[in-house]
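Tokens as discussed.
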């Protein structure tokens, strides 16, 4: 019987370990329940950025609305899967004071987002973060990540991972009723 060289065995073990971690990451990043609601008095951090047309847009400019801040990227499969449902939800509830602010975490910035939105139109405003490092004050452990912000700028709920659209709509509707 031929035995592989010790260096080959080490490489095979490392590859197997990396595969296990990757599978665990994929499982963990699939649909996740919203985390515990933040302290109701906690205000959303400052957030602003450049839009695809070069203007500056800020979360504070959406004050008075219930806002879903959605961190996403064009390369993120769960993000791409959610966008059509988010567009429908936003379009259906916009007249009641609901808005979505998409924050692109793409390294390629406007170029990647323009290519993506040419195939998948997005009716809600988008700002470009130009990279995977989250804006100051925001926690984005993975994509998608989203925060529901109340009319007075308070953090109501956060999601790390995919959002259940029925639950999201219930949360948005409850926030709009306040």
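Sequence:
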């Amino acid at each position: 019987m031929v035995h592989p060289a010790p260096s080959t065995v080490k490489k095979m073990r490392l590859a197997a370990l990396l595969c296990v971690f990757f599978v665990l990451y994929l499982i963990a990043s699939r649909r996740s329940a919203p985390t515990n609601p933040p302290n109701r008095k906690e205000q959303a951090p400052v957030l602003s950025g450049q839009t695809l047309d070069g203007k500056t847009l800020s979360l504070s400019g959406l004050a008075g609305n219930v806002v879903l801040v959605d961190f996403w990227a064009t390369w993120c499969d769960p993000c791409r899967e959610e966008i059509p449902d988010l567009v429908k939800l936003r379009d259906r509830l916009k007249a009641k004071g609901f808005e979505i602010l998409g924050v692109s975490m793409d390294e390629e910035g406007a170029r990647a987002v323009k290519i993506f939105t040419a195939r998948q139109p997005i009716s809600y405003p988008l700002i470009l973060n130009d990279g995977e490092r989250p804006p100051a004050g925001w926690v984005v452990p993975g994509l998608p990540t989203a925060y529901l912000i109340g009319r007075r700028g308070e953090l109501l709920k956060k999601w790390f991972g995919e959002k259940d659209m029925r639950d999201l709509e219930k949360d948005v509707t409850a926030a709009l009723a306040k």
